[in-house]
Amino acid sequence: MDLIYTREQEDFRMEVRQWMQENVPAEALSSFDASREGFEAHRSWEARLNAGRWGMVTWPEAYGGRGLDLIRWLIFEEEYIRAGAPLRVNQNGIFLLGPTLMEYGSDAQKSRFLPTMASGEEIWAQAWSEPQAGSDLAAVRSTARRDGDDYLLKGHKIWSSRAVYADWAFGLFRTEPDEKRHKGLSLIFFPLDAPGVTVQPIAQIDGETGFAEIMLDDVRVPAFNRLGEEGQGWSICMTTAGFERGLMLRSPARYQMAAARLVALWKRLGDDAPQSAQEGVLQAVMDADAYALAIYRTASKLIAGGHIGAEASTNKIFWSTMDMRLHRTALDLLGPLGTLTEAAPAAEDGGAWLDGYYFALSGPIYAGSNEIQKNIIAERVLGLPRA
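Given the sequence above, the corresponding structure tokens read:
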């Protein structure tokens, strides 16, 4: 892997940087999980990105992209985060479902869903987990019964991210009820305002409603909304999980910028910084750089025609534990000040370190718990027998 950027790649970086300087809002947008107003402000930002053809640069131009490779996407992400641009409210769509649609969707499905996804016109929620099927996704019980050219969806989804204000959701359903576990599952899209859909917000630790439970009572959707073949849902979802765990959802720039902020905090504190935290600061920088190299390797593999496999689980464990260690180090540096929320005048960086720490605590759980990831690594990467 060549670690030197080409002239064309550097020119692209400058193009992204200039656009961000001219377009990133001067003031931070309200949280998209706290209110409809904040959600719609982020939807408008997605529309502005799309107008500049930055919605998802790797997608073909016909679907709102630029047809660029994954290396340029990583460069884009570096400049996006460096500019302090708003969080992507449609990350479930553009980073997870979008790449999966590109691989498994028909031309008609791509034309229908990708352009509105890139523009933010339709924001997507992920509806996989159920009360009896969290980390054990193969235990889903929600059903999709075929009725002519339609499906009737019935069941109960929970921890559905962005579902409170989103427009659509993609869910895993049993289309063959007599099959067990991984068999007989299909991935199906459904609008969240359809008759028979009830969305109940779930408050997070910070009080914001980033998740929801969804009840479905004979929700009718066309068979056109099924991605791939009937019964192919498990393998399709594992492709989506590969993007979630191993590439798209957590770009390395996120952690490199956080590590740089941590170094700046340590330097600013100077002699007041506890010596015990120095090792944590150094480790954060090394971890962030190591993760970046791993992601560039994954991107190069995909560009060469490879696929993301079970090894994506190692990435997921790494970035989730790295995020926790990094924020714990920041709180160690700050001491008692690290417990202040954004409402406190003396809060360091507006309470961002504490808020980041709260979010990091969820990392070992979402995208498949780390315990499950260790089982996947043991069985599918190392070839160890089941216990």
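The chain is about 45% helix and 15% strand. Try to locate this feature in the token string yourself.
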